[in-house]
Amino acid sequence: MSNLTLDRRRFLLTSAIVGATPTLAFARAADPYAASPFRKLADADWRQRLPEASYDVLRHEGTERPFTSPLLNEHRKGAFACLGCGLPLFKSDTKFESGTGWPSFYDAIPGALARKTDTKLAFETRTEYHCAQCLGHQGHVFNDGPRPTGLRYCNNGVALKFLPA
Ligand SMILES: [Zn+2]
After folding, report:
1. How many A from CA of 23 to the centre of ligand 1?
2. Within 10 Å of residue 127's Cβ, how many Cβ atoms?
3. Cβ of 159: how many Cβ atoms within 10 Å?
4. Three-state DSSP class for 74?
5. How would you list the strands of the sheet with 104-105, edge to edge?
6. d(Cα 127, Cα 118) in Å, to the nearest integer?
């Protein structure tokens, strides 16, 4: 092996390490719940911890039937938290009557949700969102909500629990 080849390898290796460090740091900062014990639970653990309907929505992205959630009529002051892990996701003052049959909010608590694009329906792309801590599926967000955000977080009631203020 010539010295030139060896130097080139050293150079590439060094570049890879130097280049990788900021990326990893960024990934860690972007996901403050990466080390959460909730992330380590297996599917069977979740099945045991959650009521069946909640398990189906949170862990298998199911959708509850509209107009079935008792939280539709929850109008007290407080917060709506993830049923899977207890992280507060929405404040009661961002809840509004959407008429859809699912609890609806026009804003989320900063940092509480993680999003991904859902392409399950071929005719439209919906943005699905998850609890940022346990990654449990909560619902979909649309652009037809009221002011000031114009957003409509359409949430499954079985994935939430209400925490009175
Ligand atoms: Zn959660």
Report:
1. 26
2. 15
3. 31
4. coil
5. 95-96, 104-105, 152-155, 137-142, 126-131, 113-118
6. 6
pTM greater than the 0.85 cutoff:
no
Ligand 1 centre from 9 Cα, in Å?
45
CA-wise closest residue to 142 among 158, 124, 160, 130: 124
Does residue 82 carry a catalytic annotation? no
Residue that the structure tokens 């009521």 belong to: 51
Per-residue pLDDT tens over the stretch 77-129: 999 999 999 999 999 999 999 999 999 999 999 999 998 766 666 666 679 99
Taking the centre of ligand 1 as the mean of its atom positions, its distance from the CA of residue 50, in whole angstroms, is 12
Question: Which is catalytic among the residues 82, 131, 134, 154?
Answer: 154
User: Do residues 134 and 39 lie in contact, with contact meaning Cβ atoms separated by under 8 Å?
Assistant: yes
Q: Report the separation in Å between the CA atom of 24 and the middle of ligand 1, taken as the mean of its atom positions.
A: 24
Which residues, in sequence order, are CB contacts of 64 under 8 Å at separation 6+? Answer: 53, 57, 102, 156, 157, 158
DSSP H helical ranges for the chain: 3-30, 43-49, 52-60
